[in-house]
Every structure is written in structure tokens, then in C-alpha cells.
Amino acid sequence: MLKEKVEKALVKQIQVEEHSSRIYMAMASWCELKGFSGAAQFLYGHSDEERMHMTKLIKYVNDKGGHAVLLDLKAPDANYKSLLDVFEKILKHEEFVTSSINELYEVAFNEKDFTTAQFLQWYIQEQIEEESVFKSILDKFRLAGNEQGGLFHLDKELAGMTTTMPAPASAE
Ligand code: OFO
Fold first, then answer.
1. Which residue among 26, 31, 36, 41 has its CA within the 20 to 30 Å range from the CA of 7?
2. Sign of the alpha-carbon torsion through 102, 107, 112, 115
3. Candidates 10, 12, 48, 50: which one to mutate for ligand 1, based on the most atoms within 8 Å of Cβ?
4. Nearest Cα residue to 136 out of 166, 96, 91
């Protein structure tokens, strides 16, 4: 049985993951409209990954005797200044997600819920991976500068990229 504090923190994280999925879906839609088809493909995929992160948490909470409820969500931004703006916002958002996972881990650890702490290891690793991918994409933006050709190649490269680690069996 999950302790109340741990269940509440897990439900909050479900909200964060669902919100992430919607943010990336809104960004994918904007990219598609602006003709950045590679970035759109990448972000549609990334939105799906966040949904998988959410589902994995929902299943965990229910499996441990809790009730994974869904909370309210704010509508994501619909418009962005540029493709660079999109990726700067993603990195900022992922840094927020990392701090949210760390806080959740702290709650589990302080409540001596080591099973949940162990379960969260995958998320901690995933955040390391994601932040590193988004930092490297931003480095590529810096290299491309304002050059149209550089941006075109970067968009093409994004089409084939993913950030996720292999999902554990329980998430499939
Ligand atoms: Fe972007 O990562 Fe979920 O957790």
C-alpha cells in the first residue's frame, strides 16, 4: 500500500508528464504549420514518449493499491518565436521535470518507500538522457547560427532522432 504522501507526489508527477506530452504536441503542431517537418516528427514522437511516462506512473500507482487520478492542466502555448525558441523552451521544461522527479524521489526516500525510490531510478536516468540530447540540439543551433541552410539540415536531422531509453517491460 502506498503512503498518502507518496501517492500524492506520484499523482502530481502524472500531471507533469501529461502536461509535458501536451506541450510537445502543441510544439509539434506549430513546427508542422511552419514547415519544420523534421522537428514536427521528432516532437510528435516525443509527445508520445511523455504519454508513456505518464501511463507507466498510472499503472504503478494502481498496482500498488493507490488510485491514479488525473488533475487539471493549463493549455500549452500555441505560438513560438522561432525553432530555436521551441528548443530553448524544451530544455527549460526538461530541467523543471528533472527537479520535479528529484523532489518525488526525496518524498519516497524520506517516507522509506524504497520500492518507489527504486521504480523512479528509470525516470532519473531518462532525464539525464533527455537533458543531454536537448543540450546537444541547442549546440547544433549555435553552430547553424541564422543560416537558412544550417537550419534546413538541422530540421532534417531532427526527423530521425529520439531521446528515450528502452522502456522497462512494465511500460510496454
Ligand atoms: Fe521529458 O521526460 Fe518525462 O519524465
1. 26
2. negative
3. 50
4. 91
Question: What is the number of domains present in the chain?
Answer: 1
Residue 23's CATH number: 1.20.1260.10
Tell me the pLDDT tens digit for each residue of 76-107: 999 999 999 999 999 999 999 999 999 999 99
Query: Residue 172: inside a domain, yes or no?
Result: no
CA angle 137/141/86 to nearest 5° reads 70
**Atom of ligand 1 at shortest distance to CA of 127?**
2
Query: What's the pLDDT band for 172 if we cut at 50, 70, 90?
Result: very low
Q: Residue 142 is part of which domain span? A: 4-160
Cβ of 97 less than 6 Å from ligand 1: yes
**Is 171 a domain residue?**
no
